[in-house]
């Protein structure tokens, strides 16, 4: 398999940020929407903690929050500096980031995600550029440590996190907690009938649209499957294939409905709404709900 053929368009998870120390409140909101929410754990740096909403296609939503506000840490302390420099430190609560599945199986430097995408960005002239892989991890409630590799957009060229995906790959020598969870019928069973992610829509300024389209073409290694006046669409894969299910879609969108311009002004470019595939709706009239910070939409699965 050549680097050009490596799959870099598999959706792994989407990140929802809560205010510091308010993770459980958001978990209760998602439970109220009919999702099954699992306990996650504290990340290895101690700055953030998470809960999880997992789906049968292997994708998941990560509900995350900083464990403490910035003021908790003494001024000038290493912990304070780490908290202030965290990639999500300046993010408003809501949908803040999303990850595609990395390629931890491909260990040679020439086959790493960063090398592959940077090569595409150069040859295609899009300018897409990612930094070298870095380790990350967290400790589960049962004390087991999970470790992974993260490949992120280069902040020198793409300064705003959450507009382009980062890549995540659990290391092979660690138990794959999330993949095991996706086989647990109770963990992936949701009262609202959710099967997985139907789409995610990234809102950008009209002036940024062509640039973002070029970026995501290089990042995903695929061409758009549709384009309209207000959005361009790519097809994504999922970690676990379901021949009977529609593939999730990725939209690069520009303002088209009331409130979109205000959203851009307040939050900047990034995820506007996440749609979920749903069957057996308890409320057939349910089309969209919101947390205090983010939009959730429903489509027929």
Automatic annotation (TrEMBL):
What is the protein named?
Answer: Glyoxalase-like domain-containing protein
One matching Pfam family is Glyoxalase_3
Cited Gene3D superfamilies = 2,3-Dihydroxybiphenyl 1,2-Dioxygenase, domain 1
Q: Which organism is it from?
A: Agrocybe chaxingu
Domain Glyoxalase-like, by residue range, is: 11-208
Residues of the region (Disordered) are 119-138
């Amino acid at each position: 398999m050549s680097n050009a053929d490596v799959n870099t368009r598999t959706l792994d998870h989407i990140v929802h940020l809560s205010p510091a120390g308010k993770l459980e409140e958001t978990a209760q909101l998602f439970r109220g929407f009919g999702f099954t929410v699992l306990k996650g754990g504290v990340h290895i740096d101690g700055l953030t903690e998470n809960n999880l909403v997992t789906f049968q296609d292997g994708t998941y939503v990560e509900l995350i929050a900083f464990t403490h506000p910035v003021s908790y840490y003494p001024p000038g302390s290493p912990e304070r500096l780490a908290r202030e420099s965290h990639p999500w430190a300046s993010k408003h609560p809501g949908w803040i980031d999303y990850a595609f599945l990395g390629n931890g199986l491909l260990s040679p430097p020439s086959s790493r995600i960063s090398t592959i995408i940077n090569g595409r960005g150069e040859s295609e002239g899009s300018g897409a550029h990612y930094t070298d892989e870095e380790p990350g991890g967290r400790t589960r409630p049962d004390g087991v440590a999970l470790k992974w590799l993260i490949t992120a957009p280069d902040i020198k060229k793409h300064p705003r996190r959450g507009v382009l995906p980062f890549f995540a790959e659990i290391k092979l020598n660690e138990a794959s907690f999330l993949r095991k969870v996706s086989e647990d019928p109770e963990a992936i069973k949701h009262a609202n009938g959710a099967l997985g992610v139907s789409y995610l829509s990234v809102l950008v300024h009209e002036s940024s649209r062509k640039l973002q389209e070029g970026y995501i073409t290089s990042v995903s290694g695929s061409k758009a499957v549709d384009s309209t006046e207000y959005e361009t669409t790519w097809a994504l894969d999922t970690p676990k294939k379901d021949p009977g299910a529609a593939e999730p879609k990725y939209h690069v969108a520009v303002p088209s409905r009331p409130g979109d311009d205000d959203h851009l002004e307040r939050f900047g470019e990034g995820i506007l709404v996440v749609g979920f595939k749903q069957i057996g709706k308890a409320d057939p009239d349910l089309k969209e709900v919101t947390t205090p910070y983010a939009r959730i939409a429903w489509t027929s699965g």
